[in-house]
Specification:
The protein is an alpha/beta fold. 30% of the residues lie in helices and 23% in strands.
Amino acid sequence: MTNILIIGCGDLGGAVAKQLANIGLQVIGVRHSDAPMQGITLIQADVTQVATLKKLENTQADILISVSYTHLDVYKRQGDRRPV
């Protein structure tokens, strides 16, 4: 069976994880939240910490998917002048 590790298993990554689990793949999701997701093995962790990433080295995965996004309002608060 193919094992997939998804780093960033929040709203967007969680949707990807659910789709992959629904077609029978083994999915391991890494996220900040401890909220359970049916059919997905979850690891609660902060992936901005090097120690967390080192622990993930031992995770047996055939495929790695990293999902992240930033809300546009964050850029605006930081003074970014790019058009939306």
